[in-house]
Backbone:
């Protein structure tokens, strides 16, 4: 893999800013619902990385502390190095943060209004559908063989049925994988 | 209620939330803002969270903006946000650099295969968890939109903004009608 830092043109930075800046304002529930779109743009449209790269970057973001938009930071890094990481992060956070700041100021006036409840209640099921789509897309990219499919299944079961901190079994699966159990 | 926090206190508190929260920072935010620092009452927290959930962006990021704005204006928001995302962004960039350097090493590739499979399974569980309360309380009006969102992306392969634009107005209208009726 060739190091990307510092050699990309301004076009890549502009593309990153446009992509994540646009997604920022529709990121209801954060980046998890946007995974299919981010993958499509990064892999199919701009060809910044392969499908396997994307799955790996998502996995790294999950294993690190912090909010779920960090996958966009990594995509920016992969596409255009440090500048790309910073541009993607700023674009992903900027618009939604400005909107939130503005709404927070006006919020108390609309505290209990019916339209707000209707907007929230209406967006929720669509967002949940997107999160399912994100999970589907990632599982499809990650599960290249039955062993990996078994890991996904076990991970889902642990997350669903226990209150353990997921970082332990994420790192566990990584450690087992380092021995070549899942291929390389 | 304790006095309103200063920008510096906001930075420190959200920094601590960020570095303790793996995979989900909200429980840590609650512990910090409600239990430890008492900047918000439990009701304030729930109310603020519902505001944050109905806006785009990660809930915890929005919460840093709202709590910061209420206590110390724009500077408060900026400090809370910087505290929350500063360390994670540095960590993730370091990891990205390590990945570009070592992604050809077989052990690293193998580890990432395992990690990727586990992470995708985790998200599947998150999807089910988020869907449950919705489907339990109003499955008749919610389920069609959950399915339509999934089908639009996965089966039709349509770009997400279009699917959202197509479904959201209808879903919001139905939700409005449902609340009126109830």
Residues:
């Amino acid at each position: 893999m060739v190091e990307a830092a510092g050699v990309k043109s301004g076009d890549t930075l502009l593309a990153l800013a446009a992509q994540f800046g646009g997604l920022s304002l529709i990121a209801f529930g954060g980046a998890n619902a946007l995974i299919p779109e981010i993958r499509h743009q990064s892999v199919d449209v701009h060809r910044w990385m392969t499908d396997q790269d994307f799955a790996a970057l998502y996995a790294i973001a999950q294993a690190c502390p912090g909010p779920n938009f960090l996958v966009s930071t990594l995509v920016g890094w992969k596409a255009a190095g440090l500048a790309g990481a910073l541009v993607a992060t700023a674009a992903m956070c900027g618009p939604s943060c400005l909107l939130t700041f503005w709404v927070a100021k006006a919020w108390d006036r609309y505290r209990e209004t019916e339209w707000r409840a209707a907007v929230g209640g209406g967006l929720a099921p669509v967002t949940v559908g997107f999160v399912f789509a994100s999970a589907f897309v990632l599982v499809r990219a990650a599960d290249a063989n039955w062993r990996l499919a078994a890991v996904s299944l076990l991970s889902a079961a642990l997350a669903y049925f226990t209150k353990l901190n997921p970082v332990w079994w994420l790192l566990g699966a990584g450690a087992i994988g380092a021995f070549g159990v899942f291929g390389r | 209620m304790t006095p309103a926090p200063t920008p510096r206190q906001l930075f420190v508190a959200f920094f601590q939330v960020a570095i303790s929260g793996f995979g989900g920072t909200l429980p840590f935010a609650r512990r910090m803002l409600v239990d430890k620092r008492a900047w918000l009452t439990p009701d304030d927290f729930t109310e603020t969270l519902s505001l944050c959930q109905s806006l785009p962006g990660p809930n915890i990021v929005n919460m840093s903006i709202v709590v910061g704005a209420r206590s110390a204006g724009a500077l408060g928001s900026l400090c809370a946000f910087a505290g929350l995302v500063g360390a994670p962004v540095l960590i993730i960039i370091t990891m990205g650099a390590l990945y570009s350097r070592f992604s050809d090493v077989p052990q690293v590739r193998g580890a990432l295969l395992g990690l990727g499979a586990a992470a995708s399974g985790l998200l599947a569980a998150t999807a089910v968890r988020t869907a449950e309360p919705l489907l339990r309380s109003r499955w008749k009006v919610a389920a069609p939109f959950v399915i339509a969102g999934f089908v639009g992306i996965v089966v039709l392969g349509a770009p997400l903004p279009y699917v959202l634009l197509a479904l959201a107005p209808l879903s919001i209208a139905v939700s409005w009608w449902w609340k009126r009726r109830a």
Observations:
- Chain B touches chain A through 101 residues (CB under 8 Å).
